[in-house]
Every structure is written in structure tokens, then in C-alpha cells.
Design a protein that fits this description.
heterodimer, A: alpha/beta, 5-stranded mixed sheet, B: alpha+beta, Heat Shock Protein 90, 5-stranded antiparallel sheet
Chain lengths: ~110, ~140
């Protein structure tokens, strides 16, 4: 997995590309820890280019969600494909995340 | 027409790529729809990762087998390892409705397998774990 980053106003946008598996998950958790340490609290994870999620990826997402919740932050997942959404639904994670179909929709959902 | 193949795998996550590639090709050859192929790959990823990560707590190279049989009606994967006894059918289901702060990170892999496959059977035979995953194709 590769990770790209940009800042859009107060929102940190992380673009994930490839497989959210054990390696991708580690990368995500590490970067999120750094971002939160830097004081960021509004995070958008762009899943448009994520081709695959397994349970290791799901574990990383849970950890990231917990990190952000305990910091009082807000997290939105954008561009999750139907097949990736299915994995999130099966694992009962759909209810703990906020989803938007596109990055633009997600950006518009953060408080200004 | 039935196709059968047996892969002998090391207890190493590096084996996953070749298994996924093999299964993807097999699915194409047997006209298994892309969505089903993705599901099967995920289930096998989870099972193989489990064996590679947990079956052999003492370091060292071990081998286990993955036998795949595909017919028009069914995809069957039989994973046999001589690692620590582990019955995935008795693994507790994670709490799927728990609020975020109570969510545990473990158990999701086996849960995904049980949701994806039509059935998951376990036997302990002569010191080996034998897990049979079946997916109906029709």
C-alpha cells in the first residue's frame, strides 16, 4: 500500500492506494499516530484506490478509529468500493465509521 | 468438469501472493465470477495467514497443504497443518454491535471466513488440523 497526504483547510487527507493488509495497516496506524501527535483532528481517509481489505487491515482501521475517538477527532472514509464495503459490513464495522461516496463529499462534511 | 490441485506451503506470509495468484487463475479457468473469486481469495488469505502466524509458535520452517477442488457446483479448499490444535468453528464470534470503545481487534479473520464460505468444517486427524471450506457456486 502507498499513502499520499494533503491538507485541505483543517482536514488531513490521506489517500490510500493498493491493499489494506498487514503491511498497509501498520503504515496507516504509524502515520495516524504521527498526524495526531501533530495536533490534527479532522481526518479523511480516501479509499478510492484501495483494491483489497483483509482482517489485518480491519484491525488497523479499528485502532485508528479508537485513536481518533480518544483524541476527540473526526474521521470520514471516502470512496469505499462496493466490495470493500461488503467486507466492512460483514465485520460489523460499517456502524462505527462515517462514509461518503467521494472525497469532495467527505470534505464538505467536516465542520468549517 | 472437476479441477483439483494441491499446494504445499511454508508457514510464511510470503506464500500468500502465490496462493492468491493461483486461485485467481483457477477461478478464471473455471468461470467463477469476479466477486466470488475475490471472496474466495479473502477467505484463503485469512486461513493461510492464521496458519502461518499462529500454528507454529516455535520458530522454524514448517509445511502445510492446501488442496483445492473445483466443480461446477462447488469450490472446496482443504487446509491441513500439523501445528497447534485450533478449531476455527469454535472460535468466538466477535461482538459486531459493540460500541467503538468496546470493539476488540481479534477474531475478525475467522469471522470473515465463516461469513464468506457456505460451510467450514474442522477435524483433528492424527495430530493434524484439517479445515475444509466449501463455497457453493450455483
Amino acid at each position: 500500500m502507498t499513502l499520499s497526504e494533503e491538507k485541505n483547510g483543517k482536514v488531513s487527507v490521506l489517500g490510500l492506494s493498493g491493499k489494506l493488509d498487514i503491511e498497509g495497516g501498520k503504515m496507516l496506524v504509524e502515520r495516524m499516530t504521527q498526524i495526531l501527535a501533530g495536533g490534527e483532528r479532522q481526518i479523511l481517509l480516501d479509499f478510492t484506490d484501495i483494491t483489497y481489505i483483509n482482517s489485518a487491515g480491519l484491525r488497523a482501521l479499528i485502532l485508528v478509529a479508537k485513536q481518533l475517538a480518544s483524541s476527540g477527532g473526526m474521521l470520514i472514509l471516502a470512496g469505499v468500493s462496493d466490495s470493500n464495503q461488503k467486507v466492512l459490513n460483514i465485520s460489523g464495522l460499517a456502524s462505527i465509521f462515517t462514509f461518503r461516496p467521494t472525497k469532495a463529499d467527505a470534505l464538505g462534511s467536516f465542520p468549517q | 468438469m472437476t479441477e483439483q490441485a494441491t499446494l504445499i506451503l511454508k508457514n510464511d506470509l510470503s506464500e500468500l501472493e502465490s496462493v492468491i495468484s493461483f486461485v485467481s487463475d483457477l477461478c478464471v479457468r473455471n468461470s467463477i465470477p469476479a466477486e466470488t473469486a475475490r471472496d474466495l481469495n479473502l477467505a484463503l488469505d485469512e486461513m493461510i495467514t492464521n496458519v502461518a502466524t499462529h500454528a507454529y509458535p516455535v520458530s522454524g520452517e514448517h509445511r502445510f497443504t492446501l488442496q483445492i477442488t473445483v466443480s461446477n457446483e462447488e469450490f472446496v479448499a482443504r487446509i491441513e497443518d500439523d501445528g497447534v490444535e485450533f478449531n476455527p468453528t469454535e472460535h468466538p464470534i466477535p461482538e459486531l454491535d459493540a460500541p467503538l470503545e468496546k470493539r476488540k481487534v481479534g477474531g475478525l479473520g475467522i469471522h470473515l471466513v465463516r461469513q464468506i464460505m457456505t460451510s467450514v468444517e474442522y477435524q483433528r486427524v492424527a495430530g493434524k488440523n484439517v479445515v475444509t471450506l466449501r463455497k457453493k457456486l450455483t
